[in-house]
Amino acid sequence: MKIGFTLPQTGTVAWQADQVARYASEVEQLGGDSLWVIDRLLSPPNPVIGYNGADTFPEEFRAILDPFALLAVAATATERVLIGSNILNTPWYPPALLARTLTTLDVLSGGRLVPGLGVGWSPEEYDAVGVPMAERGARLDETLDALDRLWTEDPASYEGKHVRVPETRAALKPVRKPPVYLAGFAPASMRRVARRADGWLPAVVLPGTVDLDGAVNQPLAAIRAMAAEAGRDPGALDMILRIYPTVRTGSVVDDVTDVIKRVEGETEVRHVLVDLMYQADDIDTLLKQVQGILSAARPA
Hints:
Elements lengths: L1 E5 L13 H11 L3 E4 L29 H11 L4 E4 L2 E2 L5 H15 L3 E2 L1 E3 L4 H7 L6 H17 L3 E4 L4 E5 L12 E3 L3 H10 L2 E3 L1 E4 L5 H18 L8 E2 L1 E5 L6 H15 L4 E4 L8 H15 L3
Parallel strand pairs: 1-2, 1-14, 2-3, 3-5, 4-6, 6-9, 9-10, 10-12, 11-13, 13-14
Antiparallel strand pairs: 7-8
Helix pairs in contact: 1-2, 1-9, 2-3, 3-5, 6-7, 8-9
C-alpha cells in the first residue's frame, strides 16, 4: 500500500511555510509515497454553500498557501515521492496557463506529477475568479482537451466554446504525459472519470463508520462498466483513496491506520492519501503523526 500525505498548507501551519521543504523531505525519508495540495481561494464568513455538508467553512481555511508554489517546493525538496493535487479547481485557470504550470512542476520533479482535477463547489470562489459557475463542467471537459493538445502536439492549439488556445509552439513537454485523476460521485462526474480519466479519487471521512463498499467498491464497478461502454479498458483505471480525519483527536494515528488496513483488505485500492490539516498546529507534530501512521500501517 502506498501512503501519501497532504503538505502543511492550511491553518496555523500556513504561517510555517519556511518549513514546507523540511516537511516534504522528512515525509519522503520516513517512507511516504506522495505529497498533496488542496485548492481553496476564499473563506466566506457566510457561504452560500458550506464545506463538507456544514453551513460554514473550516477555521483552517482562513489561512491557506498557494498549491502550485507548495508543489514546486516539494518537487525540489524530494527525489522519489509523487506530488499531486487534491484537487485543482480546473475551470478557474486558463488552459494555457495551467498547462505551463503543470508542465513546469512535472519537469521540476522529474516526471512525478499526478494532477487531480475537478470543478469545485463554492459560488463565491467562482465570483472571485470571474468564471461562470454554471459552465464549470463544460469548461473542465474543454480544458482536458486543451491540456492534451498542449502536452502532445507542437504546434498546438484548441478552440472550444468556453476556452481557447491560439496556435503556439509548444516544445517543452512534461517528462511524461501526467496521468490525470478526477474526483466526484455525481453521475456526471463518474461518467467523466469513465470516459476521460487515468484514475479516480474517491474519499472517506473520519470519525464514524466508513462504508468502503458504498464509497469505493460500488461506484468503481459503475465507473468501470461505463468505461467499458465507452470502449476503454476498465482495468486500466487507477484509484487513490482520500482519507479525511475531520475532528482533532488523540487517536488519529490509530483511526487512520485502521482504515488503511481495511482498505487493503476490502478494496482494490493500493494508494491512499491522508489529509491531516485538522490535526496539528505545528510541523513537528504533523511529522510525528505521519511517522506513527507509516509505522503502524506497515509493521515490520
